[in-house]
Amino acid sequence: KAGVTQTPRYLIKTRGQQVTLSCSPISGHRSVSWYQQTPGQGLQFLFEYFSETQRNKGNFPGRFSGRQFSNSRSEMNVSTLELGDSALYLCASSLTTGQPQHFGDGTRLSIL
Amino acid sequence: DQQVKQNSPSLSVQEGRISILNCDYTNSMFDYFLWYKKYPAEGPTFLISISSIKDKNEDGRFTVFLNKSAKHLSLHIVPSQPGDSAVYFCAASWRPRSTGNQFYFGTGTSLTVIP
Predict the structure, then answer these.
(1) How far is B13 from chain A (nearest CA, A)?
(2) pLDDT band for position A39 (50/70/90)?
(3) Residue B43 and residue A106: Cβ atoms within 8 Å?
(4) What are phi and psi of B45, to 5 degrees?
(5) Dihedral sign, Cα of residue A51, residue A72, residue B36, residue A108
(6) What percent of chain B lies above the pLDDT cut of 70?
(7) pLDDT at B100 > cutoff 70
(8) Cα dist. B26→B6, B52, B54 in Å?
(9) What's the whole-number mean pLDDT along residues B2-17?
(10) What is the 3-state secondary structure (H, E, C) of B26-94?
C-alpha cells in the first residue's frame, strides 16, 4: 500500500512569491492535515480537510490556504512568501478525523 | 502558546537499558494522546496511543503511561535498541469533535541509544 506522497520534496522561492504544495493521501483515507515544522517549534497545525471541507484551522495568517479534491488529494498554497515561511511542511492522512495519522516525508521550503 | 511540552530536547541511553521520554500538557480537555517517532529526512511514524480512560497502554517494547491529575504522560522503551535512535514527538487532541480534529504536538525529544 503506497504511503502519503508529497511533492515536491524541495523548493526554493524568493520573498513575495507564492507556492503550491501537493499531497496524495493513502488510498481510502479521507482526512488530510497539514503541519509546519520549524526548529524548536515542533509541528504546528495548519488545517485539516475531510471530504473536501476544511474542518479545522490552526493559528496561521490567511496567506496560508488549502483545498481538498474529490479523490482526497490536497494542496496547500502560501502567498506573498516571507523569510519566516522557510520550514518543513508535512502532510498527514487518516481514514477519518481524529485517528492516528500517517505522514508524508514533507516538502522542504526555503525562502531567499 | 505551547499546550504540549517536551522539556528534554535530548536523551542518551545505553543499549538494553530503559528509555523514558516525558511529555506535559496544559489543556485538561485533551483526552487522546499519541507518540510518534521521526527519523531524519522522513515523516513522523505513529508509535502508540492512549485514551484518557486508561492510564497505561503497552505495545511490545513500548509502554505509554498517563497521569491525568499531573497532566503528564511518558513513553517507556524497554529494552532500548540502537534503531530506536530518533526524535520522539508526543501529541494530544480532543475526540471526538464533530467540527474536525486538531492534534497538538510537542517540540520533540531526540533519543540516542548508545551501543
Answers:
(1) 22
(2) confident
(3) yes
(4) -120, 130
(5) negative
(6) 94
(7) no
(8) 12, 14, 18
(9) 95
(10) CCCCCCEEEEEEECCCCCCEEEEEEECCCCEEEECCEEEEEECCCCEEEEEECCCCHHHCEEEEEEEEC
- Contact A20/A6 with Cβ under 8 angstroms? no
B43/A103 Cβ within 8 A: yes
- Cβ count within 10 A of residue A27: 10
Q: With beta carbons less than 8 A apart as the criterion, state whether A96 and A50 touch.
A: yes
Instruction: Read off the C-alpha cell for B55.
Output: 492510564
How many residues belong to chain A?
112
Sign of CA dihedral B51, B54, B59, B65: positive
Nearest chain A residue to B91, by CA: A43
Q: What are phi and psi of B84, to 5 degrees?
A: -80, -10
Judged by a CB distance cut-off of 8 A, whether residue A28 touches chain B is no
How far apart CA A64 and CA A78 sit, in angstroms, is 5
Confidence of residue A56 (pLDDT cuts 50, 70, 90): confident
CA distance B11 to B15: 13
Of A3, A2, A21, A1, nearest to A11 by C-alpha is A21
| Nearest CA-CA partner of B22 in B2, B37, B38, B5 | B5
Question: Which residues lie below 8 Å from residue B1, measured CB to CB, with a gap of 6+?
Answer: none
